[in-house]
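Structure (tokenized):
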């Protein structure tokens, strides 16, 4: 079984067990704070189910209808998970707000805290496992699910503290207040996940990723790579698609141009952890490029070399040659 599928299936099975445990804790205590944690477990299961399908789909090979593969579905999966988290948070805040003014009797909080503590520890272990696997395989879905479980762990820890305070102080209204605060934290976590997934669906530039590619090109540049500009990236699941313009000496024949472009492709694929597909447009050099061109044996140089223009995020992503020093 594919590593990503195995990881999300483990998350799903464990999530069902933990959800049952949390609802048992709620039945014992009648605590809103514990119900908050149990309700979020339902979201975990629904999100993991959708994530399992999205991971299955993202591992399918390219076809005629999906020439870039199916990796984008992972952004959609993360979006759905974020929306579910926000909805759960809103419901939690609304119910807890009502019970703040019409409180219910709660009991056996110490036993409930023990159950929530155990589920929180399990979520911590599974969450770290998913994040580690997701980063290793460049899966946004696994990372999102792992971070969701870590959020659940944090909320469980907060609930345990709150439950114990209620148990020792007897201030039962704190149950709803704690639940409301946790609800707002859950809403904020969901918003961040939605923001990241929408950015991926809209092909928002990944500045960190682009910066990594630019640094690799700068550190390994050939003299014949006179200029690189209009560099853009798109991420499809674990795959990275990059297109850019490369200025090469205009007297190079087609075989030489192909060789230089292949060198760039191999450089990036051997230097990053992403599987990268390059689309490179070759531009011919102009006399205005001579002052920053480092070709030592150029037969058509019109001006002496002055100094190299270092490539960075600002100039490589612009759609123009770097004429000015």
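Design, position by position:
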């Amino acid at each position: 079984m594919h590593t990503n599928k195995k990881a999300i299936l483990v998350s799903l099975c464990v999530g069902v067990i933990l959800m049952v445990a949390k609802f048992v804790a709620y039945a014992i205590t009648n605590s809103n704070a514990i119900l908050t944690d149990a309700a979020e477990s339902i979201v975990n299961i629904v999100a993991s189910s959708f994530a399992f399908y999205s991971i299955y789909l993202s591992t399918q090979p390219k076809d005629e209808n999906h020439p870039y593969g199916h990796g984008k579905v992972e952004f959609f999966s993360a979006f759905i998970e974020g929306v579910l988290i926000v909805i759960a948070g809103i419901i939690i805040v609304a119910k807890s707000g009502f019970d703040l003014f019409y409180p219910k009797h709660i009991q056996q909080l110490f036993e409930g805290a023990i159950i929530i503590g155990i589920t929180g520890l399990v979520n911590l272990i599974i969450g770290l496992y998913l994040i580690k696997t997701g980063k290793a395989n460049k899966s946004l879905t696994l990372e999102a699910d792992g971070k969701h479980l870590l959020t659940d762990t944090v909320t469980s820890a907060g609930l345990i503290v709150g439950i114990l305070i209620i148990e020792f102080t007897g201030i039962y209204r704190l149950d709803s207040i704690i639940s409301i605060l946790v609800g707002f934290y859950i809403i904020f976590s969901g918003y961040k996940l939605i923001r990241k997934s929408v950015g991926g669906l809209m092909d928002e530039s990944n500045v960190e990723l682009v910066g990594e590619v630019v640094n690799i090109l700068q550190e390994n540049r050939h003299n014949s790579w006179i200029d690189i500009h209009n560099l853009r990236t798109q991420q499809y699941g674990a795959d990275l698609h990059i297109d850019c313009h490369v200025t090469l000496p205009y007297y190079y024949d087609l075989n030489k141009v192909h060789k230089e472009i292949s060198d760039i492709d191999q450089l990036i694929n051997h230097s990053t952890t992403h599987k990268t597909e390059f689309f490179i447009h070759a531009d011919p050099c102009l006399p205005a490029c001579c002052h920053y061109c480092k070709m030592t044996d150029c037969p058509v140089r019109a001006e002496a070399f002055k100094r190299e223009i270092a490539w960075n995020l600002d100039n490589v992503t612009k759609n123009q040659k770097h004429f000015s020093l």
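Reviewer-requested clarification: Residues 129 and 196 are 21 Å apart (CA to CA). The longest strand covers residues 227-236.
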